[in-house]
Amino acid sequence: MHHTTEKNNASVTITITVLPEEYQHHLEKAAKRISDRSAIRGFRKGKAPFDIIKKEVGDMAILEEALESIVHEFYYTAVLEEKLDVVGMPKIDVKKIAPANELEFSATVALFPSVSVANPDTITVKKRSVSVDPSQIDKTLAALRGMRAKEAAKSGPAAKDDAIVIDMAMTVDNVPIEGGQANDYRVYLNEDHYIPGFNDQLLGLEKGSTKEFSLTFPDTHYQKQLAGKKVAFIVTAKEVFDRELPELTDEFAKTLGQESAQKLRERIEQNIFEEEQKKANDAAEIEILEKMIDASSFGEIPDILIDAEREKMMFELRRDLERHNVSIDQYLGDIKKKEKDLFEEFKERAVRRVKASLLSRQIAQEQNFTVEDAELQSELAALKDIYKDNAEYRDRLKRPEVKDTIAIQLQNKKVMAWLKAKILGEDMMDDPNLSKMGCKDCNDENHDHTHGDSHGHANTPPSA
User: Fold this and answer.
1) CA 196/CA 253 separation, integer angstroms
2) The Cα angle at residue 209 between residues 207 and 212, in degrees rounded to 5
3) Each residue's pLDDT tens digit, 30-74
4) Nearest one of 172, 171, 173, 152 to 162, comparing CA atoms
5) Which residue from 347, 352, 343, 338 is spatially nearest to 294, judged by alpha carbons?
6) CB 460 within 8 A of CB 320
7) What is the average pLDDT across 286-315?
8) CA distance 358 to 415
9) Helix/strand/coil (H, E, C) string of the chain?
10) How far is CA 274 from CA 129, 269, 271, 283, 460, in A?
11) φ and ψ at 180, to 5 degrees?
12) Is residue 448 over pLDDT 60?
């Protein structure tokens, strides 16, 4: 076999010539496959010798049967010899094919773009400090008490601590919103509603009374056709309930598994702190990634990567809509767009996501971050335990492509831990590939980098 390559920024074309003696073994295997599915006179299926099969079906039929496996072997041999970093399936063009002659074909395939990783020491990100406001604890305690409230129907106007059951209809520009009608919709007036100001509009309503008002949906609402829109409401109160909340006593705390009201408050404070800490961490990671993308440089990104990411985004959209019982057709109708329009709009974000993936992949290669099989098996075992009652999910974990995805996720975590150590000065995770990486302000390799707060980097929960 000999081959030549011709590269451009985003792809490479390999022209490969294979001699007859080099592809002979593929012909023999192809003849066997033909014999297995065809009746050769005088022989049982699969038992006819090569020469008989060749005489029966012809040289060309055997060569055509063998073509795919020939191309597969010698294409990948050329890729390995050239050390090409290819992505996706190649486009094959057979140029010469004749029995007992050289076989020539070309393969054009996309290349992973080059990535020049920015120096993380030049990136500045400050993670938000975390604290817990006492009002957050009070709000959670009120919600817990509300879950155990005793309710009784009342005849007077709805007050702040009441519950109200309504029928509701929503319109935009006098056009009813599909799925925007609800009957027997229960609202707890002392809790936050996803539409700001909604609960306030219900205060003072009595059983049987009707009210019309308008509110603006949040810009972040999951239904993009309603996000930021002014929506008109017609609500009718069907029932108003007075709610008697239990007192916050030690006995009440014990019903929630805590020793006392004080211990309950401390547990809530800890939970809120951890939740806020996670939000701050997530926000910092996003900012780190965005700034690293902006500061790094990328070669031409092939369409195959962008389109694959757009397909993934479309799948994610469908899944999110299904969770809210909204079909893709309904969604497209509401926003007055076709699926191809949406697919095109995804391009800018898809490019950004592809760059994030390429950046993480490049850093992993440069820093030699790998995922050992023991790490992958440990993660799979943990996921199987979490989803022990979901047989379908557990079956998916057996698929090679799912395992590959999980391995990439684990590798991405190592990359992010390294970036955070460099940019935020945080501790490295307990990983043999990372444990010798120092903190941003610490160059002592002998220092214990599994430390807690010796450099003042660790966030500690508030004291009770």
Assistant:
1) 31
2) 140
3) 998 888 877 777 676 767 888 888 888 899 999 999 999 999 999
4) 152
5) 352
6) no
7) 92
8) 12
9) CEEEEEECCCEEEEEEEECHHHHHHHHHHHHHHHHHHCCCCCCCCCCCCHHHHHHHHCHHHHHHHHHHHHHHHHHHHHHHHHCCCEEEEEEEEEEECCCCCCEEEEEEEEECCCEECCCHHHCCCCCCCCCCCHHHHHHHHHHHHHHCCEEEECCCCCCCCCEEEEEEEEEECCEEEEEEEEEEEEEECCCCCCCCCHHHHHCCCCCCCEEEEEEECCCCCCCCCCCCCEEEEEEEEEEEEEEECCCCCHHHHHHCCCCCHHHHHHHHHHHHHHHHHHHHHHHHHHHHHHHHHHHCEECCCCHHHHHHHHHHHHHHHHHHHHHCCCCHHHHHHHHCCCHHHHHHHCHHHHHHHHHHHHHHHHHHHHHCCCCCHHHHHHHHHHHHHHCCCCHHHHHHCCCHHHHHHHHHHHHHHHHHHHHHHHHCCCCCCCCCCCCCCCCCCCCCCCCCCCCCCCCCCCCCCCCC
10) 12, 9, 5, 14, 10
11) -95, 15
12) no
Residue 44: predicted pLDDT: 67
Residue 400's pLDDT is: 80
Residue type, 78: A
The predicted-structure confidence for 387-414, as pLDDT tens digits, reads as follows 988 888 888 888 887 888 899 999 999 9
pLDDT above 50: residue 464? no
Unique residue bearing structure tokens 């211990």: 263
> What's the whole-model pTM score?
0.68
452 has pLDDT over 90: no
Cβ pair 425, 455 in contact under 8 A: yes
How high is the pLDDT of residue 46? 65
Q: How far apart are CA 315 and CA 321, in angstroms?
A: 10
* Sole residue written with tokens 């069907």: 238
List 151's β-bridge partners, or say none: 243
CB burial string 270-290: b at 16+ within 10 A, e below: eebbeebbeeebeebbebbbe
List, for residues 180-190, the tens digit of each pLDDT value.
Answer: 889 999 999 98
Q: Cα dist. 22→18, 235, 412 in Å?
A: 6, 79, 42
Q: What is the pLDDT of residues 319-336, one digit of tens each?
A: 888 888 888 888 888 788
Structural domains in the chain, sorted by start: 2-111 (3.30.70.1050), 149-244 (3.10.50.40), 368-464 (no CATH)
